[in-house]
Amino acid sequence: MSLRATARIVAAPGGRLPVLESDGPLALRRTRASGGGPGDSRVTVVGAMSAPLGGDRLAIEAEVQDGAHLTVDAAAATVALPGRAAEPAHYDVRLTVGQHAALHWLPEQLISARGSDLRMRTHVELAPTARLVLREEQVLGRHQEPTGTLVTRLTVRRGGRPLFDQELSYGPGAPGGWDGGAVLGGHRAVGQLLVVHEGSANAPPRPRLLGETAVLTPLAGPGVLVTAVAPDARGLRRVLDDALALVREEARGRVTVPAG
Question: Which residues form the signal peptide (predicted)?
């Protein structure tokens, strides 16, 4: 039997969490905020059961109210698995960040296991003065196994206008060339880091390569995108962590980016 579950978070100023609602396999736990201010909140997503399976429909909704700061991370990777249902699983993430608010969305890796079929959508609505650090990481297959089918879409709107919209497809049924030299080049881990803050539109960083398998690109708006591939999850995380440290260092001369 397919599963339906939606977990909800609302963060308010002063470190308050007026809504922290777990559901099904999505267990939410308030954890100690590290590296932030006394009014920051941190929530960790803990997987309560194996999910998503084929046919499941899971969702997480997070609202960061005006002036609030929230970090959301995870206790472990999410593993997409095949299920009894023939239809794909769906995992939707809906994020809203208010005026002068900040959200650090830092989940663990999403692993696409052999035979799985997952559609994942992340939709972000930012107020004009909102700040965002968002990391996405996908690992295509567990150790020494081929990947399942994975389609992800990330859409970010700021002040009601589009800032970023990208869809990626991997595995059986994906358009040809996804595992070729022009895309993954034999790598099994792929990820992106999106940083949005005031000031980056007026003094954007220059586009450039970060090592051999990552690239930094300023967006047409107040944002910076880092896209990377790596042989494995550990290598990908190292590249994205280094990229975030670089973006923060360069941003200090333009605008303060809060620590995660």
Answer: none
In angstroms, rounded to a whole number, what is the distance separating the alpha carbons of residues 29 and 46? 7
- pLDDT tens track for 111-159: 999 999 999 999 999 999 999 999 999 999 998 899 999 999 999 999 9
Cα–Cα distance for residue pair 129/98, rounded to 1 Å: 8
Return the pLDDT at 92: 97
The verdict on pTM exceeding 0.85 is yes
Taking the C-alpha atoms of residue 260 and residue 247, their distance in angstroms, rounded to an integer, is 13
The residues facing 126 across adjacent strands are 97, 158
DSSP 233: H
DSSP state of 116: -
Residue 233 near residue 244 (C-beta atoms within 8 A): no
The whole-angstrom separation of Cα 77 and Cα 47 is: 9
Give the chain's residues under pLDDT 50.
255-260
Rounded Cα distance between 125 and 139, Å, is: 26
Question: What is the three-state SS of 48-102?
Answer: CCCCCCCCCEEEEEEEECCCCEEEEEECCCEEECCCCCCCCEEEEEEEEECCCCE
- Cα(60)–Cα(142) distance, integer angstroms: 24
For the chain, give every domain's residue range: 4-184
